[in-house]
Each structure stands twice: as structure tokens, then as C-alpha cells.
Design brief:
The protein has about 240 residues and is mostly helical. It has a domain at about 1-5 and about 70-225. Helix content is about 60%, strand content about 5%. It has 8 helices and 6 strands. The chain has helices at about 1-15, 35, 70-80, 85-100, 110-140, 155-160, 180-190, 200-240, and strands spanning about 50, 55, 60, 145, 165-170, 175. The chain has a two-stranded antiparallel ribbon with strand order 1-2. α7 (about 180-190) crosses α8 (about 200-240). The longest helix is centred in the last third of the chain and has 40 residues, at about 200-240. The chain is globular and about 50 Å long. The termini are far apart. The model is unreliable at about 1-45 (pLDDT under 50).
Amino acid sequence: MVARALVACTILPLAAQCQNAPSGGPVQPGTKSESSSAGEGAGQPDKRIFGIIPNFRTSPTLEEYKPLSPKEKFKIAGLDAFDRGTIALAAAFAGGGQISNAESGFDQGVAGYARYFGTAYADFLIGDYMTEGVYPTILHQDPRYFRKGRGSGVSRFGYAVGQIFWTHKDSGGTQFNYSEVVGNSTAVAISMAYYPDGRTAANAVTALGTQLAVDTASNILKEFWPDLERKLSKKHRASTDPDGQ
């Protein structure tokens, strides 16, 4: 839980630092964005945020939108699920769980940590496949996060949060994000089989709420990460070049 708290604590500073983004709404299919014209949208976004958080399903814009095939959706799920960043995050979550003794049935020591790690990683793996592969394929929804990239920090913050509950259809247009909500609900239901202290309805609701909150924080990080990365790069260049050249 410590790792989740750290992730959540980063999102508000990100929004505050990006208040001066160019105004405008999200880029629509067939249009050019300012970021694209500047080169940002020409390539793929960073594969990892802060060098660790997987970022494979982020799309810079909705320009020239093309739906994903089922194979491509499962490929994204696999990239996220088996990325070294996901493994590292599972290890961090496991450490937080063991420190707080979140599951009394897991005990302490190396064996206990192994159980915490195994269940934490299973949560990530199952959740990724359910929300990015299985349900997007069945329901013909797009699992990608499309950056808004423009407008005030507040508007972009709201946009990022909204994509948890509202997503794009393969056929165009938008609809309720069943893949996110039902997919995570399915993952939580499956997790009840391997959490000895978590087989109650109340615990299931808490686990679902936590997962949705983590995914919301992830969306916000994806929205603001390019802006923060540019700021960090400028600070790094300034610190290494005292003459400003």
C-alpha cells in the first residue's frame, strides 16, 4: 500500500506544474495537434514513466484514429503484464503489504514476502489482461489512453480521470468504460481465491475501489508525464551547463 500512496501523491503536483499548456480540447481524428507539429506526437511515448511505470498503452493523440485488432490488444496487455516495471511495482507493493501485515495468513520472513509478491504480481497480471485484452476484445472497446495534451491543468486532470469511466469504441465514438470497471471487477473476483483474508464482499469492494484509484492515478501520470519530463530535462541541462549554453 505504500507504493500506491506514493503514486497517488504525485498526481496533484503534476497537474499544478502543467497549468500553462496550450488551450484547446482533445485532438480529434484527422486533425493536427500542436504537440504533433512540434514533433511530440510523431513518435511513440516513453515506454515507462519515471523509468519504471509501464506506459505501453498511451497514445499521443486521436489523430488518424485506427482501431486495434484483438491481437494488438492482447499484445499491449502482455507488454504491461510482463514488463520489468510491473515486476518492480509488485515487489514494492509486496513490501508495503508485509510491513503493514496486510494479510495475517501470509506470515513474515522470506516465505511470507514471496506470498505477498506472488499475489501482488497476480493482481497486476490478471488486471492487465482483463482490462486491456479480454474485455476490450469482447466489447470492442479501445484499451489505450489518449492524451489530451492541451488546455489547463484542471481540464486535463478531469479528462484523465474521466477516461476511467468513459472510453473509445473500435467503431468510433465513446461509451461507458465497461472494460475498466467490469475487467477490474473480474480480476478482484478471481483474487478472492488466493487472498486468505480477503474473501468477503466488503474486502472485494475495497479492492475494486483501490484498483480504480490506482488506474486513475496512472491515467493522470500518463497525461502529464511528457510535460514533467520536459521540465526535468530543462532543469538537468541548466544544472549541467551553468553558462546556459
